């Protein structure tokens, strides 16, 4: 039996994610699929459109066997930290291979780029008027710009090689472009779906019904007001993760003039600071994640849910895992999950805090479906 790891955010879960899982099952029919799942807040600093509980239930319905949590402290950081934590956890729970979506599917090239970055002689040249992908391309002397999923794939490979994880890696063709916000094909990106939601367009054909009816409406006005209060009253903004190079002064100035969250981001945007970087920074301010929290040790594997096969795998292999599967409720890692759920509830009127405190894995039989 092949144990496959996948890393996803599911905001929202859509047809492309179904395609991803189906392709894995086609290639490895008897595989056991373990999902490392990002929860309430995302790698690009956004608020998830599905709760952690909903995402877990949906994943189990669509042939995922075991769902584990990517801690919010790492799930909201840039690609390399996001990739390190997710591959670390999948390695710890016994996954043999990770399979990720890729624009190029050129795994040899992606591995070559990862190895170049790990070379002690490699120097990252940062030009102030260029984005991170542009600077990386220039530093690597790459001819073609590295696209988002390939960039994340490189981070996965780099983490595996650097930390000597016992994971191999494969990729499958991504069928939609991350930057494409206009396509109406049956499989489109999560970014495209979020853009269509923002524009009040019908999205029913792009995701399964069970995911559509679980979508959350995020109160962005409340998010902005909370951030405004925090920015204007906290005298130590520079301590928050991603607040660097005097950005705290820019924030204090612009938050007074800004009319909403997006206006604040636009006012802070420059050639040096990408939208993703600014969104992550604001997310860390919102969650209270400081620079000193960036490398909190991951001391446990949080099991969010499992199928019957997943349960059997846990019973058979639990003693072989590199980390315990019991939450350390005294850890800072866990305290941030509780904070994240409470703030998520504040923005969505959900009840995820009760789910977090209950700490009971979601179970679903191999032939069951979610009842709504």
**Assembly context of the chains:** single chain
The main pleated sheet reads as: 7 strands, mixed
Average pLDDT level: 92
The residue fraction in helices comes out at: 40-55%
The order of strands across the largest sheet is: 5-4-1-2-3-6-7
Strand content: 5-15%
* Number of strand segments: 7
Please give the count of helices: 16
Q: What is the CATH superfamily classification of the largest domain?
A: HUPs
CATH architecture annotation of the largest domain? 3-Layer(aba) Sandwich
According to CATH, the fold-level topology of the largest domain is Rossmann fold
Number of domains: 2
By secondary-structure content and strand pairing, the structural class works out as alpha/beta
- CATH class group of the largest domain: Alpha Beta
Order of helices and strands: EHEHEHHEHHHEHHHHHHEHHHE
Q: What is the end-to-end distance? A: 33 Å
Which spans have pLDDT < 50 for at least 5 consecutive residues?
A: 366-372
Radius of gyration: 20 Å
What does this structure look like?
- The protein is of the alpha/beta class and 372 residues long.
- It has 2 domains: 3-217 and 297-364, Rossmann fold (3-Layer(aba) Sandwich); 220-293, no CATH class.
- Helix content is 46%, strand content 10%.
- The chain has helices at residues 15-27, 52-61, 72-75, 79-92, 107-118, 132-140, 148-162, 190-198, 209-212, 220-233, 247-257, 261-268, 275-287, 308-317, 332-348, 352-358; strands spanning 3-8, 32-38, 66-70, 97-102, 168-173, 303-307, 362-364.
- Helix 15 (332-348) packs antiparallel against helix 16.
